[in-house]
Amino acid sequence: MTDAAVHAVNPDQQVRTRLSGRQICKSFGSAQVLFDVSIDLMAGEVHALLGENGAGKSTLVKILSGYHQPSSGELVLDGAPVTFHDSEAGENHGVILIHQELNLAEQLTVEENIFLGREIKRGWFLDKATMRQEAAKLLSQLQCDVDPKTRIRDLSVSDRQMVEIAKALSKKADILILDEPTAVLTGREVDILFDQIRRLRDQGVAILYISHKLDEIKAIADRVTVLRDGRHITTEPVAGLEKDDMARLMVGRDIKQMFPDRTPGHAGDVALSVRNLSVDGQVRDASFDLRRGEVLGFAGIVGAGRTALMEAIIGLRERSSGQIERNGNPVAINSLQDAKKCGIAYLTKDRKGSGLLLNMEMRPNLTLLALEKFGRVIIDRKAEEAALEAAIEAFDIRAADRKSKVGDFSGGNQQKLLLAKVMETDPEIVIIDEPTRGIDIGTKSQIYHFIGDLTNRGKSVILLSSEMPEMLGLSDRIAVMAAGCITGILEGNDRNEHEIMRHATGISGKQGVSVHE
Amino acid sequence: MNSLERTERSASSGFTIDFKALGPFLALVGLFILGTAINEAFLSGGNLANIFTRAAFIGIIAVGATFVITAGGIDLSVGSMAAFISGAMIVVMNTLVATLGAGIETVLIGVVLSIVLGVGAGAINGLVSTKGKIEAFIVTLGTMGIYRSLVTYMADGGTLSLDFEVRGVYRPVYYGDVLGIPVPVLVFFAVAVAGYVLLNMTPFGRKCFAIGSNEQVARYSAIHVDRVKTMTYVIQGLCVSLATIIYVPRLGSASSSTGVLWELEAIAAVIIGGTMLKGGYGRIWGTVVGAIMLTTIGNILNLTDAISNYLNGAVQGLIIIVAVFLQRGDWRRKKSK
Amino acid sequence: MNSLERTERSASSGFTIDFKALGPFLALVGLFILGTAINEAFLSGGNLANIFTRAAFIGIIAVGATFVITAGGIDLSVGSMAAFISGAMIVVMNTLVATLGAGIETVLIGVVLSIVLGVGAGAINGLVSTKGKIEAFIVTLGTMGIYRSLVTYMADGGTLSLDFEVRGVYRPVYYGDVLGIPVPVLVFFAVAVAGYVLLNMTPFGRKCFAIGSNEQVARYSAIHVDRVKTMTYVIQGLCVSLATIIYVPRLGSASSSTGVLWELEAIAAVIIGGTMLKGGYGRIWGTVVGAIMLTTIGNILNLTDAISNYLNGAVQGLIIIVAVFLQRGDWRRKKSK
Amino acid sequence: DKIKIGVSIPAATHGWAGGLNWHAEQAEKRIEATYPNIDIIVVSANGASEQANDLEDLVSVQNIDALVVLPFESDPLTVPVQQVKQAGKFVTVVDRGLSLPGIEDVYVAGNNPELGRVSGEYIRERLNDEGKIVVLRGIPTTVDTERVDAFVETLDGSKIEILDMKHANWNRDDGYEVMQDFLSRFPKIDAVWAQDDDIALGVIEAVKQADRTDEMFIVGGAGMKDIIKRVMDGDKLTPIDVLYPPAMIATAIDITVMKFTSNAPVEGRYILGATVVTQDNAENFYFPDSPF
Ligand SMILES: Nc1ncnc2c1ncn2[C@@H]1O[C@H](COP(=O)(O)OP(=O)(O)OP(=O)(O)O)[C@@H](O)[C@H]1O
Ligand SMILES: Nc1ncnc2c1ncn2[C@@H]1O[C@H](COP(=O)(O)OP(=O)(O)OP(=O)(O)O)[C@@H](O)[C@H]1O
Ligand SMILES: [Mg+2]
Ligand SMILES: [Mg+2]
């Protein structure tokens, strides 16, 4: 067992515990979210932290790195008790946390964010040249070809995450904690990240890794700690655990069937038809049909233009050309309001930036998109409360306190609330962009079944996802995009990873032409 | 997490929120105690009526400002707008006396004109800033200069005075009372209630909160951001026009010095009341209390000669800071988080 | 995304930024053309020197305001602070004449006092708002009243007037020139350069941006948010004191009406220059141009008597709105996103 | 080339200053119509430093030959006016004298202490040296201080008690509110010195509202037509008004113009008294067409 845990450590390096949390308890107000949790992080080991949404993972790691103070319990660093008054103290002791929620100043550039608070100086002045060089070096290490001068607000979510990782790497961590770093990353980026994690581990860095993707845990972690409802359930080597075991430990029950049974070919008439839609510089000549009762997947590498296409359909981006038909009739959708009237709803992948009002409580967030349903003149609060009740039930939203700000919710619960918000409009067609980002495995399965139910009731779903199993497990057909073009729509047995990759890279199908020609 | 804990937590946070909401009221009560201590006349019916009547002007305007600020905007033009509307009302009513006589009709036309001008001026502020994509601060700074100039121009640098006969007819709108409550106070109350309902109980109000909180999220929630923002300026304009309608019969005149610095007072009332200057959170009752607080401070200073006149501003400034500090409510609790 | 796209994208955004940065300059050039068209004397050396010298006051204060606003704050007290500091300088220098005589020492002590007071007043604004957790709007509204009262009190309701002998010694600080460039313009230039360096080339400046952009992120990046914010107010105070140092020899006096509404002018200069009122993005050169634009508008209105004096404010308001509209720079491009 | 005369005055931010602007514009029209070779340029400022800017502009871009200036405040404008003088211009100063002697060629003086004194004397006489009064002051400036000091001095030695003095900023809204508060505070008030007609108008409304018109009388100042009309009509509330006419700017412009149109030597001091307007002489001071 212990052998397994330290298999990758340099032989000359002793197994040693770097940072421990002992009997950590944490309450916000009078709500306790952690109960006597203990955890040991060892040099040269990747330790995974598992648990359902709201189990307290993020809270625990924030305590370990000094962002929160424990209500009781203590931290032990290299055998001696230690108190981190703030995150700066934590970082000074080499404890670096990559937050689950992005923590970048949107109006600053990539380079400025990476070195924020630790600017490299020459004399009294910023050494911009060095910082730019360093930033470029860090980014290229992560094979991320973002220009360090780009402002964060102009970056895609996954690029932002890579910047966060670059920022953490630049800090020379002894103990590196990653809170769901891969939720917004693509497969390729995950591989790059894992290479970096292995490299650091081999250098003797202690790593704590949080993810809801159990494959990743299998692939990268040596030991795993499972939390449930704020309590420590177990800590054991990953080698001895199967994915199902982990899921059971987390959820406390078996997950029988991940995906709903979907009988292929039960799809009906065309509900939405898009013809020759283009967006300047982002999408070219996209055409597809969506049938009633089907899930149409959209696959493609990052920046292929999927989001741009969808936002153009629902009127959030300007189209340069193209027609849209609903049930065979042409419709003019020039704003999200028009789309809503046509029964189309859209779930954004950027829950923090465009999804939820973080400084407000759940109720107004839930009903914001479908306000008129709750009264055109006066909002019916009772109906809102009832809807909230129903949504909490249906989407299993676990908030300690209904009145607390959505920004204080755990990431997964925010995502569930966002899904509930979009569903509140009772749409005929749902476009969902990365619906299960940061969602635990139990809830994920619930969401998949929910999508299944939707289509069974004759509604249609467009699914944008970078998770291949999700794409394959849910979609009836899969449209693949590359460089702004739909390069193919895969049906039946063609729906497999290999075909998708071939189309996504432009090897096969309609040529993905550079959209900027 | 078990249900027991859940109840417990929400109970405690309920307390916190209540205390915060009570903050401005407590600060106001503090001021009243101070006032009474300084001069017993403070609590006399006449004085209280004076305070509330005066608070009505700034209060009505501040209710409008609450919408603008909640939705993330700002309006610096309200004072000049009030002066301009007063001026236009007086000019038109004086002209009408010749044809319609000094009757109710004349006053009514003046009132309608006021509303039209207020709504129009608000719409201009809103449309120029949203459609022209210019910071509201600049747009309303510009219109502030424009309206003030226009009234100066109309008055030829002097004062526009309402015809004395019309004044007689119009007078009760300011000096009258219903069951002993002055008309301006009633109007103030009505505007506050309407504002409260609109901001807290209607889809429109909800949208204001959403826009002030995060415009992008609002846009992704199918909200016509520009339209709602423009509407907040229109509401502000309407409130200015209502305030003007009760202002004109008070002294029956308008000049370039009418309404100077009202914008600052209105914004101060809003912020004292707990609305956030950056938008996303607004509180009508807070604003009402804020307006009354500002008026009360002025009144208290007039009731004592203990303080050198020259230091009035200093005392006023201090009281505002202390009152806001007290009303924040969390000074008693330890720094948390 | 292939690398071709990537390069192109960043190139295009580079262009936008350049155009945006040019915006205020273009608007200023437009104003200069307008001025010359109205009166040829506009371009005379004397007139230009006057414009730049005048812009120095408001400009220096506005450089400080750029820091405060970039870091997400606001300072309404600068005008009264200037009045108060002028007053204190005058009182002290007048007193010193008796002992030290009307020499350089007296002036120097006055200057040092000014800096101490400016820094102190700024620190008070900063500390009260950060430590007391009170909106900066309220705190500085309060101190605005306090400083204004203090100067009224010091002057006993009248005017504080600098000893005429001291004026003679002090005079060159305003009226002197170096190689033909007026001293205030040189000071303005130096302050602007220092401000530019501090805001754009030092860690401190970067922290201001970060705090204005997102306080939480700044806090998580080990930035001492309260300390940096307080520092921005201290810088603002220092700038006010520098502006005062060159102001005092100009008019040689201070009274309760000194510096009235300078805060509005300073903030307007900052916003016209392209800094965002909500914080997170500041531009010193924009502020400098903004201050010069405001002064130029005032000057242009004096070039002609075609416009009734009563309408000055309206023309001023219109020009400000139009200038900001033009300088936004994206009016030429189609709505994107 | 035309002879240019620059006129620099405070902006029309309150009633009296409004009257000032009106009279200046009227004078401009009248004189430019009479003398085609004279160009009058009126500029108005919102503060002392803005006025200093205006003076610079009048010299550098308008290239004036003469300046008529009513300083916003005496002291800060002393040096800027001196600059104009040093540039070789003819200078007429109105109302508020400069702090250094010998700068101006002509001084047309209003007389602020006189206004306070005359008002004080009237109140002493009316109250038979005994009673309770309240005072509403203007904006805390030298003008206000001079008036009030002289007023208080005049009351010395009488049994008249000044209950309190508060600033009403030459503004009728403030006048109304301050008076309301005086009325709630003091059960008995025999007279009000409002010092300025704008303030007086606010005071009148407050007294009427409190229904205490028979208890007291009000003394304003300046000569605003509304008040003059009341005096003329024999309103008991406003038995007199003390003149401080904004028309003095027109007088000053006329005198300055004479310098260029006649050979008579133009220089020296022209002091305007603070005339008391009573029902008997009110007609002479009532100009219904003036905006002030
Ligand atoms: N600042 C806070 N104030 C109040 N409650 C909080 C705060 N932070 C977290 N919580 C609550 O603590 C609980 C645990 O949250 P935490 O973010 O640790 O969950 P998590 O395990 O990371 O979940 P996820 O997988 O969804 O990210 C949640 O119920 C959350 O609402
Ligand atoms: N705000 C923006 N400014 C400039 N370019 C943008 C912006 N948003 C997206 N783009 C560019 O538009 C193109 C399409 O982006 P889009 O987000 O639609 O890709 P995607 O395939 O949906 O990516 P993902 O797989 O992350 O969902 C990309 O080149 C992207 O970089
Ligand atoms: Mg989490
Ligand atoms: Mg996308």
TrEMBL record, chain A:
Residues 19-254, 265-508 form the ABC transporter domain. CDD domains: ABC_Carb_Monos_I, ABC_Carb_Monos_II. The keyword Protease does not apply. It holds the Pfam family ABC_tran. Keywords: ATP-binding, Cell membrane, Membrane, Nucleotide-binding, Repeat, Sugar transport, Translocase, Transport. One of its GO terms (molecular function) is ATP binding. It comes from the Bacteria. The keyword Metal-binding does not apply. PANTHER family: CARBOHYDRATE TRANSPORT ATP-BINDING PROTEIN MG119-RELATED, D-ALLOSE IMPORT ATP-BINDING PROTEIN ALSA-RELATED. This is ABC transporter ATP-binding protein.
From TrEMBL, chains B, C:
Keywords: Cell membrane, Membrane, Transmembrane, Transmembrane helix. It is found in: Cell membrane. The chain crosses the membrane at residues 21-39, 51-74, 81-101, 107-127, 134-154, 174-199, 284-301, 307-326. Its main location: membrane. The keyword Phosphoprotein does not apply. It holds the Pfam family BPD_transp_2. It is a multi-pass membrane protein. The keyword Lipid biosynthesis does not apply. This is ABC transporter permease. The lineage of its organism: Bacteria, Pseudomonadati, Pseudomonadota, Alphaproteobacteria, Rhodospirillales.
